[in-house]
Amino acid sequence: MKPSLQFRLSQHLSLTPQLQQSIRLLQLSTLELHQEIEQMLEQNPFLEPEDEGGFDSLASLDVERQAADKGVRDDAREEQAAAPESETPGLDTAELGTTERDDWENGTEREDFDGIRETPSRADDDDYDPMERNTAAISLQDHLREQLHGTRLDGADMAAVEMLIESLNEDGYLADPLEEIAASLLDEDTDEDTREDVMSRLRCALSWLQNMDPIGVGAANLSDCLILQLRALPRSEAQVIAILICKSHLELLARRDYKKLMAATGADEALLREAQDLIVHLEPKPGRAFTRAEANIIVPDVIVQKVGRNFKVMLNPDVMPKLRINDVYANALRQSRAPRGSTATEGHANMSARLQEARWFVKNIQQRFDTILRVSQAIVDRQKNFFTHGEIAMKPLVLREIADELGLHESTISRVTTAKYMATLFGTFELKYFFGSSLNTEAGGNASSTAVRALIKQLVSAEDPKKPLSDSQLSLMLEEQGIQVARRTVAKYREALKIAPANLRKTL
Predict the structure, then answer these.
(1) Residue 182 neighbours by CB under 8 Å, 6+ apart
(2) Could you tell me how far CA 457 lies from the centroid of its own chain?
(3) For the residues of 361-414, what is the DSSP string, one character each?
(4) CB of 333 within 8 A of CB of 355?
(5) Is the pTM for the entire model greater than 0.90?
(6) More confident residue, 111 or 309
(7) Segment 252-281 mean pLDDT
(8) Domain 438-505 classification at class level
């Protein structure tokens, strides 16, 4: 075979370090960006925060904001105290909603995300701090020990109760059987008399524990927990039926199979309703009140403000980093010259690279926020009805529409809308919340899946509890409003809204 030469032309995209950094910064969340900035400030001497209002930390900013709010509340109290005869204005608290999850099949890379809304404030306590509970509340174990110290138990019995207290899980259940707890205290060659004595002492300790507050603590399972709470209630026919249900028929109650429940308990419909009412008001997790909930603080990246009939997006100044190049070091580097080939020349080149890195970083940070602002404003312009009427007026929107409008790639829009949040009149939402697939309507238009979920929520909230709406009925009702939604799609949206099926929503 005769050898020959061939020429081929090919193209490939090479990402420069500056472009790679820009892409990486764009997809970072606010907290991750803050950490990246702190690391860069430590490593690069040419980079420094501005003196005025520098990007210190989100925690310090939040503390300052809380202090300012508290100062305003204190001033209001002083004014109110100065005019005791005036009426105290009531506080209007808007319902801000809950967290919802759904799989989005609209070009968002099938990522799961949260449409997070702010937690409603407590109107009855102006000084309420969501972090106060985490710092001031005691644990379940400490609460039980305080009660234990008030008893007159001897040392051995008190030690046995403390052993059981330490064995409780965060829900207040004693998950391990007494036999296993006793086995952990004894050696394998312990005689039977000693084992029986330890078991007897643990049974006595368990009796003491189950009579402590909160009632239901120390139960082995849900059934025992509910029975302990029911036995603490005044005796009645409904109480007896409720105990019987919790002892043997909890599964039937969970399925809302009232016919079998009435046959198994011998209770009529009225008595069964009373028993059910007793059960639903019990606490299935006695240790819940003592659980230290983790604070999930969301700091919005952008804020939506109404200007006339339009809505304007502005960047949140609290998350805007204020960085600059150190002029002293930069001028010193510019004025320094070293002979060619010397060691100082290599050091000068390294420092020049660090200076260029600092400039790139500042520029990419600014570009990141400019892109977030552009994308957010485009979303607001497309979803103007949402900011006026709420989620029921949400329009269908996909990433490609925003990408085409701004001249960006879909992947860029996906990075911008991930872990970035927008503060609105209806709460704080992730930017991806405003994207939703479209559903056909009889009029030939499209309806957003978010709006359809809102309609389903409204229909379920207005249903008759005795005759809850099935998924098929919900589908027909939506069709009557001109929205064509299959039963399976309704079931999918209902599950995303954390709404139970019709058989589990039924009441007597």
Answers:
(1) 195, 198, 199, 202
(2) 20
(3) HHHHHHHHHHHHHHHHHHHHHHTHHHHHH-GGGPPPB-HHHHHHHHT--HHHHH
(4) yes
(5) no
(6) 309
(7) 88
(8) mainly alpha
